[in-house]
Design goal:
The complex is a heterodimer. Chain A is mostly helical. Chain A has a domain of 238 residues. Chain A is built from 15 helices and no strands. Chain B is of the alpha/beta class. Chain B has a domain of 140 residues: Rossmann fold (3-Layer(aba) Sandwich). In chain B, strands 6-7-8-3-9-10 form a 6-stranded mixed sheet, sandwiched between helices. In chain B, strands 2-1-4-5 form a 4-stranded antiparallel sheet, covered by helices on one side. Chain B starts with 12 loop residues before the first strand and ends in an 8-residue tail after the last helix. Classes of the chains: A mainly alpha, B alpha/beta. Chains A and B meet through helix 10 and helix 11 of A and helix 2, helix 3 and helix 5 of B. The complex binds adenosine-5'-triphosphate (ATP) and magnesium ion.
């Protein structure tokens, strides 16, 4: 078998990885600090959006909880990556047994992701049998619960105060490598035995059950995997931004990553990537316009919230005219495209008289 | 007629004993008992609203039974979860078509084999073979949502077969098909039970199809059994004639 044929099943992730690597190289070559910063944050967002796609795209159930697991990942990774001296300096309330913990960045990140996944496993199991509105509202409740715990458990999180002094480990390159791994992982999940069964439950829960699919189990596994990815994203973000508070992991962030996924198209990995790129670009342009208007002082009282309002309007318009997002469930692929239309010799469509 | 005492649960059959399903006051199923052996084709017929679909839904675990029992090869499966019942060897199609619309035809069938524990590769191989047998392999790469109507039911049958069931329930597989398509379906269905060693229960209003396909018939009306036997015997039962009186059903 030649190389092209071998790679054929992976044309989608390879295309996406190619695009991401190209962007990273271009940014690295240009070497503009502001651009590097924007692109690095975009890669971290992309990891979060991919993690959300893993659950939402395959199960068809909206989740508001994702950013909560990002928060868990951020705080957990910092507990391990910070030096004991830095911990005593920035959070005098910390449980004494947490102070001596100290590991390199990568193990800290993996432990953080694991902790997010374990907490997701415990919190979500009872929720996975719910469908429709109940399923969505309860994920929102999970977000609120995580937020409240982060705010009040100051012996771990430093409470509502900003936690600062985190080492800056996340670079353009660490973030892009993590992105590449995540793209492959999320795509392989979609095509895995679990992913295929989960997509079947998304399309028809009754039919899925009738062929032996345990819907609750499939959703649960995907939710856990999704939280793991969110934990990775949180750990990367924490070590890029270096100071944050529980308010960094709440409604604003939730809205942004949901907008990215919904605009791109939640049911494909390509949709997650395209949505993240487009929304990041759009937000930066809108923010520049907002700043410019403020500099010109057209509005005496200042001009704020323009970016958020426009993003919200775009989201609403997309949901009305293209509810399946830009990609509409399709994946980008390079050489031949999958046949979506009937073959040449087609039987006439019968009247649906039942 | 409905209270025929059933024997000990048979070890190579599906046994339904005194199955009842009440929707509040409505007795959709009222003490139905029968058994279905491997290799056999049983026709379940009755006027609209007589409880045929409800029976399939209760047996496959979609609805809880009010009372009664269901055994597969001697093991009780009453009120187990639908996916557990699928594992026990029951598969079905739906009166209102339920395909995985965003999956291809091949994936629709493949996922059923995957859910029975096969690897994706082995499942794909089994799906390809079944699509070939059912005569729809030409459409395998098409998304189920754009499939012509006449083929949707065949994909459901292929999907059910991919679980390698011991017993297969088909809810109105010929509904909405024209005569040619119905004839084609008959050819496909008639050889399945013997080849796959499975018992097939078929519900349909197309009496020509039922009479030619089935070894035995079971007739329901208002949730009660009003007749059972070979097609010839059932035709002569007064209660059956009564239930169908005034209805223009060919063959009865
Ligand atoms: N989920 C439900 N809740 C309440 N009543 C129901 C429900 N499902 C079915 N019924 C009622 O139970 C009775 C039997 O319905 P069922 O669908 O089993 O009939 P059927 O024999 O399949 O009819 P048809 O030939 O029209 O498909 C009907 O009176 C129907 O209205
Ligand atoms: Mg029915």
């Amino acid at each position: 078998m030649n190389l092209a044929a071998r790679l054929k099943p992976f044309d989608t992730p390879l295309t996406l990885v190619g695009a991401v690597l190209f962007l990273a190289l271009l940014t690295g070559l240009l070497g503009i600090p502001l651009l590097t910063r924007i692109v690095t944050v975009m890669f971290v967002s992309l990891i979060l959006v991919l993690g959300l796609q893993l659950y939402m795209g395959n199960s068809g159930i909206l989740s508001f909880a994702h950013i909560g697991f990002m928060g868990i990942g951020a705080y957990t990774s910092v507990l391990f990556s910070m030096t004991p001296a830095a911990k005593e300096l920035t959070n005098s309330n910390l449980y004494p047994f947490l102070i001596p913990l100290h590991l390199p960045f990568l193990p800290s990140l993996l432990i953080a992701a694991l902790v997010a996944a374990i907490i997701a496993a415990v919190l979500s199991y009872p929720l996975m049998r719910l469908s429709d509105a109940a399923a969505v509202i309860t994920t929102f409740a999970v977000l609120v619960i995580i937020h409240v715990v982060l705010v009040h458990w100051d012996r771990v999180t430093n409470g509502p105060r900003t936690l600062f002094g985190v080492d800056s480990y996340t670079t353009l390159w660490t973030s892009v490598i993590s992105c590449v791994i995540t793209i492959f992982a999320v795509y392989l999940f979609k095509e895995s035995r679990i992913g295929l069964r989960l997509r079947a439950t998304r399309d028809d829960a009754y039919a899925a059950a009738s062929i032996g699919i345990n819907i609750v189990l499939m959703r649960w596994l995907a939710f856990i995997a999704s939280a793991f990815v969110a934990g990775v994203g949180g750990a990367l973000w924490a070590h890029f931004i270096t100071s944050f508070s529980p308010y960094s992991f709440y409604l604003t962030e939730t809205f942004v990553i949901l907008a990215m996924l919904v605009i791109g198209g939640p049911s494909s990995v390509s949709g997650a990537v395209i949505g993240t790129l487009i929304v990041t670009a759009a937000r930066e342009v809108l923010r520049a316009i907002e700043n410019y208007i403020n500099i010109l002082q057209i509005f005496p009282g200042g001009f704020f919230g323009f970016t958020e309002v426009i993003m919200a309007i775009v989201l609403v318009v997309i949901l009305i005219y293209r509810p399946t997002g830009i990609m509409g469930g399709r994946e980008l692929r390079w050489p031949g495209r999958r046949r979506l239309s009937p073959p040449v010799e087609q039987e006439p469509v019968r009247n649906r008289n039942v | 007629m409905s209270d025929i005492p059933s024997a000990e649960p048979n070890h190579n059959a599906l046994n339904i004993q005194g199955l009842c399903k009440y929707f509040f006051g409505l007795r959709a199923l009222d003490g139905v008992s029968f058994s279905l052996s491997r290799g056999e084709i049983l026709g379940l017929i009755g006027p609209n609203g007589s409880g045929k679909t409800t029976l399939i839904n209760v047996v496959t675990g979609l609805l809880p039974a009010t009372s009664g029992q269901v055994f597969v090869d001697g093991t009780e499966i009453t009120n187990k979860k639908p996916y557990q019942i699928a594992y026990a060897g029951l598969a079905r199609t739906f009166q209102t078509i339920r395909l995985f619309r965003e999956l291809t035809v091949l994936e629709n069938v493949e996922v059923a084999a995957v859910s029975m524990g096969l690897s994706r590769k082995a499942a794909r191989q089994r799906a390809i073979e079944i699509l070939e047998e059912i005569g729809i392999s030409r459409w395998s790469e098409m998304l189920a949502s754009v499939l012509p109507y006449g083929l949707e039911r065949r994909v459901e049958i292929a999907r059910a077969l991919a679980t390698q069931p011991k017993f297969l329930f088909l809810d109105e597989p010929a509904a909405g098909l024209n005569e040619d398509e119905s004839e084609e379906l008959l050819q496909v269905l008639s050889s399945i039970p013997a080849r796959k060693n499975l018992g097939m229960l078929i519900v349909d209003h197309d009496m020509r199809l039922i009479m030619r396909l089935c070894n035995r018939l079971h007739v329901l009306n208002f949730g009660k059994t009003i007749g059972m036997g070979t097609p010839e015997e059932v035709r002569k039962i007064p209660a059956v004639l009564q239930a169908y009186l005034g209805k223009t059903v060919a063959g009865v």
